Structure formats: structure tokens, C-alpha cells
Amino acid sequence: MKASEGYTRLEPFLISRVNIREDEIPPENLELAKEKRRVLIETLADVDDVIADRYLMEEEPTVRELQVYSLL
After folding, report:
1. Could you give the CA distance from residue 72 to residue 68 in angstroms, rounded to a whole number?
2. Any residues with CB less than 8 A from the CB of 30 and at least 6 apart, and which?
3. For residue 58, what pLDDT is reported?
4. Is residue 48 within 8 Å of residue 3, measured between CB atoms?
5. Which of 5, 8, 38, 67 lies at a 20 to 30 A Cα distance from 14?
């Protein structure tokens, strides 16, 4: 089982308890944010087959796939 699959049943419960805020990244922090996102995706690829497949295919994981991990 892929790590992200185990939380599918809990997702509605968890999402209702998380406040996700979207905002513009200040220009002076943009490069740092891109680097941190790259490291996050590489790290998740080590533990999740779906994200690993996307990483190896040089595709971006979906926001939904990444949100599963923010809910843990």
C-alpha cells in the first residue's frame, strides 16, 4: 500500500480541521521557497510510490497528493 492511500478514508475528517492559507510568496523568499518545495518532494518520493513515480517522470505531484502529508 502506498503511504498516501492509507489516509484516503481519513481525508475528509482531517481536511475539515486544517486551515490552508494561500498567499503570494514575497519576491525575496521565492528562491528559498522553490528549493524547500524541491526538497520536500524529493523526501516524500522516498516514502510514497505515487510521488516517487511522478518525481522519476519529472512531473509535479498534485496539490492533493501533497496535502495528504500536511494532514498527518
Report:
1. 7
2. none
3. 94
4. yes
5. 38
Mean pLDDT by 10 residues, the chain (72 residues): 50 57 89 94 91 93 80 58
Q: Is 58 left (phi over 0), alpha (psi -120 to 50) or beta?
A: left
Q: What are phi and psi of 69, to 5 degrees?
A: -80, -25
Q: Is the four-CA dihedral 62, 44, 1, 20 of positive or negative sign?
A: negative
3-state helix/strand/coil string of 21-37 = CCCCCCHHHHHHHHHHH
In terms of C-beta density within 10 A (0-12 exposed, 13-18 middle, 19 or more buried), how is residue 38 classed? exposed
- At 12 the three-state DSSP class reads helix
